[in-house]
Design brief:
Layout lengths: L2 H33 L5 E6 L6 H16 L3 E6 L4 H9 L5 E5 H9 L8 E16 L15 E3 L6 H12 L9 E3 L6 H4 L6 E6 L4 H8 L4 E2 L4 H8 L9 E5 L5 H4 L4 E13 L4 H13 L1 H5 L10 H4 L9 H9 L3
Parallel strand pairs: 1-2, 1-3, 5-6, 5-7
Antiparallel strand pairs: 3-10, 4-7, 4-8, 4-10, 9-10
């Protein structure tokens, strides 16, 4: 082989080695976060009622975290719902929580304790307002609830915020024009026709606490049409986080007779505080996205979690740890 060809061969070999090193470096950079020791310690996550989607999601996320962060203890704390969850995180009683965007914004607008320290981790999925009545009930619209016995959710729940706004939009005073009850998803369905005429629920689709009743056609959903959602928006403030949509016919086949039901939805957020460790939050954010399909097998609404939408945690700024994760996977 001539000296010239030999030099060309060596140059090609060196270029090949260099390219290989670059690829190896990129691979090492990509997996580096998983090669370092996972954060440990103890965190508290505020969820929701035992029959609700928040609690189920929290249980499944705790399992997913345990696989990649074995030294992290996750304590789940049940609650009445979004409003209580926001307050717990803001005041340091919990490190993470699930909460609807309207409840977060209402807490902020009212200038409650610790509101400035709230931060977003991920936008998860949407809650759908589900107004249920007995199958033979004469209630066909929200306006028909006047004078009726209506469960509007526990005092510290996001359901109550939504129910009160919908009732007012329909011209009903929640304190005077109905007989209000604090029943939630755990007791409300079973009391329809037995002390309750209707109950409000806001949760992911389908909600386990309703599935059994819908399979037996033991309840019916009252439509909340777009015109009523428009009237809710006229109340201003946090109502901008509501959007008109439909409960798809596939959500509860036994109670919808193959038809979609008009309703209102609001996005759910995983929230934390600015002072929570950024490295721990980065790992947690990564696992939330990584475990989407596994959690989604049981909490179907969680299948919608996506890195392209998870980053939009309005009205909260992203926590620094969550921001680091999203930057690392930015295309």
């Amino acid at each position: 082989m001539s000296p010239v060809l030999s030099r060309i061969g060596r140059r090609r070999a060196l270029r090949g080695v260099a390219a290989g090193l670059v690829v190896l470096g990129l691979l090492l950079w990509w997996v580096a976060p998983w090669r370092e020791e996972a954060p440990g310690g103890t965190i508290t996550m505020s969820t929701g009622t035992r029959a609700g989607v928040y609690q189920k999601y929290g249980e499944l996320l705790r399992t997913a975290l345990g696989k990649d962060m074995p030294d992290l203890e996750v304590r789940l704390k049940t609650s009445d719902g979004s409003w209580e969850n926001v307050r717990r995180v803001a005041t340091g009683q919990a490190d993470f929580a699930l909460a609807a965007a309207d409840a977060v914004e209402t807490y902020r607008q009212e200038g409650r304790t610790g509101a400035d320290g709230l931060r977003g981790v991920a936008r998860l999925y949407d809650d759908y307002v589900q107004l249920a009545v007995a199958p033979g009930s004469g209630i066909r619209t929200v306006a028909d609830l006047r004078g009726k016995r209506v469960a509007i959710g526990p005092p510290k729940s996001g359901v109550r915020l939504i129910a009160n706004r919908l009732l007012r939009a329909a011209g009903i005073d929640p304190e005077r024009d109905i007989v209000p009850s604090a029943d939630g998803i755990d007791t409300g369905p079973g009391r329809l026709g037995h002390g309750l005429d209707a109950f409000f629920w806001s949760g992911g689709l389908p909600t386990d606490g309703l599935k059994t009743y819908t399979e037996d056609s033991a309840l019916r959903f009252v439509p909340i049409d777009a015109s009523l959602v428009t009237k809710v928006h006229e109340q201003g403030g946090a109502t901008r986080y509501y959007r008109a949509t439909n409960i798809p016919e596939s959500a509860y086949p036994g109670s919808q007779l193959g038809s979609a039901v008009p309703t209102m939805a609001v996005s759910n957020l995983l929230i934390t505080r600015a002072d929570v460790d950024p490295r721990l939050t980065e790992w947690l954010t990564r696992i939330v996205l990584k475990s989407r399909d596994g959690i989604g097998a049981d909490v179907h609404s969680a299948q919608l979690v996506d890195v392209r939408t998870a980053i939009y945690t309005d009205p909260l700024r992203l926590h620094e740890g969550a921001r680091r994760y999203y930057r690392s996977v930015k295309p």
